[in-house]
Fold this protein.
Amino acid sequence: MACIILILKSRSGVTLDLFFIDTAAAPLYVEAVGGAYYQFSDEATGFAPPRLQAVREGDALRVSFGDSPALVIGHYFSRGAGALIGLQEGGGMRRYADAPSAMPPPGRGCKMRPSC
C-alpha cells in the first residue's frame, strides 16, 4: 500500500488543498479547479511517483499509480484543465502530461504520455 500526496496549487503557487491518496483504497474523487496544478509526491520519498497514468473518462480525468485507479478529478476538462506535476530528485518539476490538448476525444481512452 502506497500513499500519494496531492497538493492542489493555484497558478501563482498558493496551496489550495491537500489530499492523501491511499492507492489500495477506492479512488479518491476531487472536483477540478480551473487552471490549477496537481502536484503529486510519494509519501515515502517526497518525490514524484515514478509511474502515473491518466485516462480521460468523459469530462473527468482518472489517475492511476499502478494497476487500478486511485484518483478521479471531476470536470477536469470543462473547468480549464491544469497540469499534473511532481518534484524530481534533482529539485526540478516533472510534468506528467500536456492536458487537455494531448487527450483524445471521449471514448478513445489514450493513456497520457508525450506521444499521445
Observations:
- The CA atoms of residues 46 and 87 lie 8 Å apart.
- Residues 3-95 form one domain.
